[in-house]
Amino acid sequence: MAAQSYDRLEGVIWYDGKLVPWESANLHVLSHGLHYASCVFEGERAYGGKIFESTKHSERLKRSANILDFEIPYSVAEIDAAKKLVLEKNGKTEAYVRPVAWRGSEMMGVSAQNNTIHLAIASWQWPSYFDPEQRLKGIRLDLAEYRRPDPRTAPCRAKAAGLYMICTISKHKAERKGYADAMMLDWEGRVAECTGANIFFIKDGKIHTPIADCFLDGITRQTAIRLARKRGIEVIERRIMPNELKDFSECFITGSAAEVTAVSEIADWNFNPGGITKTLMDDYTVLVNAKTEAAVA
Fold it and tell me: Residue 260: which of 222, 232, 293 has the closest Cα?
């Protein structure tokens, strides 16, 4: 049986300061955010009813909007409170949380300085992004055709809707070929990230990961680096060329949706998910649940 459409889920959505029935959270077809991608969002996870790094996500949402030249009319504290309220009202303790902000419909054209800025927040039950058994066994990645753009050509430090257009195309192509996702290179042909997750490689007990200058320095990425260094594992942020992939023993990806997930294959390169990957997966699981337990206590 097909999954229920996301516009027909049960519950409430926080919309411009009010809780509205799920099916009533609509916007006009001439909204600027739809036509010109003046839209930013966050992807967050709640464990045991508490959103992991909620404030960091809210801060990034505000920064993303500023980069796209608009101001969300709510403070970080107000956004945090709204997310918490939505989670409570929908009664979901293990959930995905999606705040989204966009320009409205007052002006229809490239220029839209006077458009109302809207903010909506939804939450729903969402299990692991990848099959739990595959997360340690390792998912398979294709090599994406599209590349992450030069930072001089796109607002790459914003979690902006328009930047995900090439991600959707790349993931669709990968899935049609039997892969779980795709790895993207940057504009100069260096390893960048996956379509919705950051990527890490392991060689001789050290972790190597691309410099996050043309893609988001993910909050889960930052957490994984912190956990690794706490274990005494060296993390090297540097430029990585595709021809180096043959020299790495392990590979994993990170993201709010992906959490920490092992990779077994990228196109013609193969990896053996091992000790460091499993350790970080376990440490991440303990961390997100420990924060919940501390909050409850």
Answer: 222
Same domain for 237 and 106?
no
Total structural domains within the chain: 2
Question: Which CATH number does the domain housing residue 16 bear?
Answer: 3.30.470.10
Average pLDDT, the chain: 94
Classify each residue of 5-38 as buried b or exposed e, where b means 16 or more C-beta atoms within 10 Å of its C-beta.
eeeebebbbbbeeebeebeebeeeeebbbbebbb
168-207 per-position pLDDT tens digit: 999 999 999 999 999 999 999 999 999 999 999 999 999 9
Tell the burial category of 133 from Cβ atoms under 10 Å away from its Cβ (0-12, 13-18, 19+): exposed
| Catalytic positions | 159
**Same domain, yes or no, for 210 and 76?**
no
Q: Residue 220 and residue 287: Cα distance in Å, rounded?
A: 11
Question: Which domain CATH number covers 188?
Answer: 3.20.10.10
What confidence category does residue 290 fall into, taking pLDDT thresholds of 50, 70 and 90?
confident
pLDDT tens column, 21-41: 999 999 999 999 999 999 999
Model confidence pLDDT, tens digit, residues 256-287: 999 999 999 999 999 999 999 999 999 999 99
Q: Is the pLDDT of residue 243 over 90?
A: yes
Q: Are residues 73 and 196 in the same domain?
A: no
> Do 113 and 139 have their domain in common?
no
